[in-house]
Amino acid sequence: METDKPGGKLRIRGGNLVAFLLSLLLSLIVWGVMEFSDRYRYVFHYTVQIYSPLEGRVFTSTSRDMLAVRGASSGFFLLRHKYSVKNGTNVLSFRIDPSLLQPSDREEDVFWLPTSALADKVSESMAGKLVVEEVVDDTLFFLMPRNMQKKVPVCISSDITYSDQYMPVERLIVRPDSVLITGDEDIVSTIDSVFTEKIYAKNIKDNIQGEAAILPINGVEMSAEQIVYRLKVERYIENELSIPIQMLNVPPDARMVLFPSAVKVLFREEYGKNKELTEDDFNACVDYNQAAASSSGKAKIKLNKVPAGVLRYSLVPEFADRVIFMSKKDER
Question: For the chain, how are helix, strand and coil distributed in percent, rounded to 5?
Answer without folding.
Answer: 20, 50, 35
